[in-house]
Amino acid sequence: MMSDILITHIHKLVQVREQTQGVVSGAAMRVLPELENAYLLISKGVITDFGLMDNLSSGIKAATTLNASGRLVLPSFVDSHTHLVFAATREEEFVMKLKGATYQEIAAAGGGILNSARKLQLATEDELFEKALTRVAEIISTGTGAVEIKSGYGLTTKDELKMLRVARRLGEQTPLTVKTTLLGAHAVPKDKSKEHYIEEVINEMIPAAAEQNLADYIDVFCEAGFFSPDETERIVEAGKQHGLVPRLHANQLGRSGGVQVGVKTKAISVDHLENIGTEEIEALKGSSTMPVSLPGAAFFLGLPFTPARQLIDAGLPLAIATDYNPGSAPGGSMPFNISLACMKMRMLPEEAINAATINTAYTLNLLQSHASITKGKVANVFITKPMRSVAAIPYGYSNNPVSQVILNGKLITENK
């Protein structure tokens, strides 16, 4: 039997699931199935076999054999919340923040989302694509194999569609699995009233994105000073009419009502959750809406961290994503966000790995094809540098734990 890649002598093969399951919730988030001294076989882009080295047939041959002695093998991370396509960084606002300016004050001074929008409107699609390629290489090298990319820095129909086209192109021309989200309702342009802009989002932006098959999801920044729960619901319901699944920015800057409107509209996820309490946790119980924490944004902005223990101890699932963007989370490392989840949110390493694989995959409708070591799933995996257990990933918070990356069954990168 000739296969493409055979990984042998794996110290621990992590997130092994014989069958694809649903989300991981509550106490089950502590369970992370592993095989010690294992092998993994990859053929034609998918996982075809795995097991203990003692059971590896001598008849199995592969074009490439990798020895993972002393190393872990994990399914690639699924980053379910990013703003990966943008025109320029915003380090000048970082300095303003260091001088004491708040997120809202920076936005009021013409910074924030509107700053990114001005720069993006001047950039061509090719320029945006080339800049995004650097970020794609960055996140692949730190273990991400599937990613969600939002629009939201265009704030005109033409420029929002431009962003979505770039995101789709990244999915077509790089090894990443990419899902796209229309976030036209990210902020209100200076030259339009809120009502006029909402009408543009509903009557122009959403129909065009759906007709051109540029978006899988619809998102709204549901926060005081941006879009209210009623406005969010109105926009989301318009998106649903065009086949776009809702996922929402909720409860980042305050108790915005975003979680409740997310549950009401059957959003697949509500993301951020820096400011939630018992009311929001109760609303999430019994729903199909995944709570998603973005610890890198809380870290960068100095906000409270999502109360992970309260959510998990209430029997709920939790996901972790990066929020990679130029203003509030200028980095796309899932391992660093896992470290923050453990150190600042008191999550166990096993909980954090489940949150960054299975639970994020659920929000991107990728659970049947990604995020676990399961026969028949896409062969998106990475081999770590030498380490004894998954606890070494959050423990070494400044280190990139990834040694070799395999995406779609092909060896993509090696970190020396």
Can you describe this structure?
- This protein is an alpha/beta fold.
- It has two domains: 2-75 and 371-414, Urease, subunit C, domain 1, CATH 2.30.40; 78-363, TIM Barrel.
- Helices cover 35% and strands 23% of the residues.
- The protein has 15 helices and 16 strands.
- The chain has helices at 91-98, 103-108, 113-122, 125-141, 157-173, 194-211, 229-241, 258-264, 278-284, 295-301, 308-313, 334-345, 349-356, 358-363, 392-395; strands at residues 2-14, 34-43, 46-52, 61-67, 72-75, 77-79, 144-150, 177-185, 217-222, 245-250, 269-272, 290-293, 319-320, 381-384, 402-407, 410-414.
- Strands 1, 2, 3, 4, 5, 14, 15 and 16 form an eight-stranded mixed sheet that branches. The protein has an eight-stranded parallel sheet with strand order 6-7-8-9-10-11-12-13.
- Helix 5 links the parallel strand 7 and strand 8.
- Helix 7 (229-241) packs parallel to helix 8.
- The longest helix has 18 residues, at 194-211.
- The chain starts with a strand and ends with a strand.
Keywords for this structure?
Urease, subunit C, domain 1; eight-stranded parallel sheet; about 35% helix; 2 domains; alpha/beta; about 425 residues; TIM Barrel; eight-stranded mixed sheet
